[in-house]
Amino acid sequence: MTKSSGYKRALILSVLCAVGLAVAVPAAWGDPMKMVPADSLFCVRINNLDGALGQIDMFLSGLFPMGISMPVKAQLAQFLGSAQPQGVNMAGGFVVFGPLPGGGPDPSRIGVLVPVRNYQQFVSDNANVGQPDGRGISKIGPDGAAMLATVEVGGYALVSTIGNEEALTAMKTSGAGASTLAAALDAAELKRSTDAPVWIYANVELAGKLFGPMIQAKIEEAKQGMQALEAQGQDAMAKQATANIEASAAILDVLMKETKYFSVSLSPSFEKIGASFVLAAAPGSSMADMFKGDSAGAGNKLMGYMTDGAAVNFAGSMSSPFWRKANEAYIDLLPKMMGDKASADDIATFKKMATDAMNAFGGSLAGSFSVDTDSKPPFQVTYVADVKDSATFYKVLEETAEAMTAGSMADLYKEMGMQMSFDLKRNTSSHEGVSIDSIKFNMKGTDPDAPATQAIEAMYGDGLDIQMATVNNQLVYALGQNAQGAVQKLIDQVKAGGPKQVAGEAQAALAMIPGAEKADFFMTINVLRLMKMASAFAPIPMPQTDIPTQSNLAVASDASNGKMTVDLAVPKQHVLEIMGAVMQMQQQNMDN
């Protein structure tokens, strides 16, 4: 490797290191967010460089043969031209933000705040850091090949690429200016930026203003391309593609206009890696209304109906305003998705159906999605939900059956090459004095030779058998080959007062996310079991694995105080199980 290529590799690794790191707080500035302009498009911060790298190493132990701490520190030292990074506070970290003040959203106008114990020592003791010029700016890099420049700002080394010296001088003189990110963030988000080992922030409101018109123009170009295909006689395909583009554009437009910011917080540890995603709505927007939250917060009393061995377990609060508003927002998109297939009367009908369905439920829901590759379909769904008005619920089911088989929705599916059937029958059987209703749902392609038709048949077989009943103000529901037996078991459980405790796998997943038992929505995901189901749909036989699995990913979400927060926990054990399954599949492919 040449000296030049080695230097470039060191530069790239050092910048990547900086993107994940945050700053120790010097007394001169207090919160480092006070050094970042409020109109930054993005900001990345990791608190405590040594600690963050150490936590990542702990998570990676057992997964990979070596950690990242030593290579990152070695590359940083190599970049500075020293045996060790002299003067850098390795117990601190870096803040990366952009753009620097005084220019547009140029990707080269990125600033990196490097915590230094003594700036003069940082300059003097690192061979690749030049002496300051009259403006206090030093170049970083080998003689004749400097690519970066740095200046002291409030006890930090502010680093950027060559060419941004004017912005560095401005930051040295006036800092971030009167409006800082510390002042722009709400108290909860500012605390996240301080507490999380890794914190990443994106100013979506500003990005929408800067890039929204350009993105919408590109979408309009794509739509015009589909309309050109329509003019050439490819009517059905082009019409549906145009409708999909319009719907996507509408969603993107709402997100960019009604979102204030988006942030991600990462917390690695020996046993798991946690991630927290926050979508903050602009005050007064319809999204903010959707994210109002449920004041009850009593927790979900039906979580005992989640089962061990499921591919997915789920539980949620049906009283959260989010679900009602999300349904309404989806229906408002239907005119764009359905084109001339949906009239104003149709949309009004769909909206009323969604509202009635939400009003029929009240309280909680919990259930499981399980895999059974020996049956068709190769999965089973069971759940229990609190019901306030079962008569309204069944009325909505009847209206849904009509809409899917004879209304505008049915016409849309026919245009897409699919035909639906939805046969609802009341009182088809009973168990322990409880009447059971059934639904036979089927979806078939109109072209029997089409790949989509064959895929649908592999998934649904002769149709989905659904059994349901209401008992003690709760709806019990089962879908699958043995739906009758499953719904009878649920009836017995409800009549007995419900499960007395949460199943072991779900309980372990709940413990990984503090407060998950009171979340608006909670879910466990087992990737290995989902892989097994995917193999049942594959057009060619796939290798099967026998890796035992009992761990799961955990997801919890809440919509409140104008924000949607989603917490994700990935246990190391599940990563090990996935790696074992993949290696086993690769070995089987090699043997064959």
Short description:
With 592 residues, the protein is of the alpha+beta class.
Compute the number of helices: 19
Task: Kindly name the structural category.
Answer: alpha+beta
Question: What are the low-pLDDT stretches, counting only 5+ consecutive residues below 50?
Answer: 1-30
What best-fitting shape do the alpha-carbon axes yield? globular
Distance separating the two termini: 39 Å
Task: Please state roughly what percent of the residues sit in beta strands, choosing from under 5%, 5-15%, 15-25%, 25-35%, 35-45% or over 45%.
Answer: 15-25%
Number of strands: 19
Q: What summary fits the major beta sheet?
A: 19 strands, antiparallel
Computed CA radius of gyration, to the nearest angstrom: 29 Å
**Helical amount:** 40-55%
Q: What's the mean pLDDT score?
A: 84
Architecture overview:
This protein is α+β, with helices and mostly antiparallel strands. Helix content is 42%, strand content 24%. It is built from 19 helices and 19 strands. It has helices spanning 3-19, 49-60, 69-80, 119-125, 165-174, 181-184, 187-195, 204-231, 235-258, 286-290, 321-338, 344-360, 390-406, 408-415, 451-460, 483-495, 504-511, 527-537, 572-591; strands at residues 42-46, 95-98, 111-115, 138-140, 148-153, 156-161, 198-202, 259-268, 272-281, 312-317, 361-371, 379-387, 418-431, 434-445, 464-471, 474-479, 521-525, 553-560, 563-571. It has a 19-stranded antiparallel beta sheet, sandwiched between helices. α8 (204-231) runs antiparallel to α9, α12 (344-360) packs antiparallel against α13 (390-406) and α13 (390-406) packs across α14 (408-415). Mean pLDDT is 84; it is low at 1-30.
